[in-house]
Amino acid sequence: MTVAIAIKINNGLVLATDSASAIGETDDEQTKIHYTYYNADKLFNLKKGHPIGCLTWGDGSINGVSISTLTKDFRKNLDRIPDLKIRDITEEFIEYLKEFIDGKYENINVGFLIAGYSDNNKNFPEMYMIEIKEEKITKRELPYDNNFSISWFGDIDFLSRFILGFDPEMEILLKNNNFDEKTIDKIITLVKNNLSIPLGASEMPIQDAIDLADFLVEICKKTSRFVPGPQIIGGPTDIAVITKHEGFKWIERKHYYAQELNINCK
Questions:
Q1: Given CB 3.0 to 4.6 Å as the disulfide criterion, which of 60, 200, 225, 239 pairs with 251?
Q2: pTM of the prediction?
């Protein structure tokens, strides 16, 4: 279980995620959580020294191999590509995942965000979302021409209620209560236009975007802590910033080893 945040402003991107990882089983459309751990890696620099990052949510592994290991294995493929373009990296990653999965898509439910600056794009960051669910892989480009955006992935209910003013399940609830499509669209538009919270602006400094990302992750972690059931969002918050000139920079990052004993560790 996860919350993953991507904030785009004029000066770059801020990526943030929690560290919870739940192990359970689904039975009769209900998920039973057996264990919850709080040290999973879900945020990565896809190529050292380059302004390219990856967020992940959903399953913590595919066919018994952790998402962290898969992502870092893929990172080696980028060494042979001279001109790194976010779109091309996304396509390469999709082909890599297809080859690894080898047609065995059953019960896989995982998402990735590939984000950063292409070598041939001097000013604007790009973001592509990859999802593997319902036994297929899909790709979607997030809005490119909007200088400010907040995107959230994974367990999105808490943030959707807080930012947009309604739960993602509201449309289903209205359909089940015999509202027609036209009325549902009108209600959702009305709620978005009047109850959403305008957070941030494209001109905000990087540090403020960092604080906003951290705040949004904390909302989900604290809410998950106090609602009934296991806390499925929690643990340390990992945060990274991607900018044109400074590249990929860690702001908050957990380690399972003592850094002073591993000065040269990557």
A1: 239
A2: 0.91
